[in-house]
Specification:
With 127 residues, this protein is of the alpha+beta class. It is 17% helix and 39% strand. The chain folds into two domains: 49 residues; 63 residues, no CATH class. A five-stranded antiparallel β-sheet has the order 4-3-2-1-5, with no helix packed on it.
């Protein structure tokens, strides 16, 4: 049996009648000799089993990062920002190399850089 996706791939999961969700392939499965998957829905942190390939489409690591980057607010607290990056982005994009993240020298901007993908920047929000 051939599988379109491999474990660790980011995908978009669309269940009939529901909004599309970003997900990660956790395990390959089989149902009547048809490829299925156990997936982890990134946005609501739940799993779904026996998902068919027709319910999935390819996604990118950048799509996952963009999704969470839009929700990220940098207030100058580097520890909070770093925890956000680790828990929401790095844990959900699988294997990547040459990653760096952190504030600039005056802490006015926070950046995430992944070689070969992109650099994401967020200006510090002042109240």
């Amino acid at each position: 049996m051939e599988f379109k996706f491999k474990v660790g791939d980011n995908v978009i999961y669309t269940k009939s009648g529901e909004e599309s969700k970003l997900a990660t392939i956790f395990k390959k499965r089989s149902n009547s000799h048809q490829p299925c998957y156990l997936i982890y829905k990134i946005e609501d942190k739940t799993a779904e089993d026996m998902v068919t390939e027709t319910e999935l489409e390819e996604s990118t690591k950048s799509s996952v990062i963009d999704h969470f980057w839009d929700k990220f607010t940098y207030d100058g607290n580097s520890l909070t920002a770093s925890n956000f990056i680790i828990n929401n982005i790095l844990k959900n994009i699988g294997n990547v190399n040459n990653i760096s993240w952190g504030p600039n020298d005056d802490k006015s901007k926070y950046s995430l850089k992944i070689e070969g993908l992109n650099t994401w920047n967020k200006d510090k929000v002042t109240n």
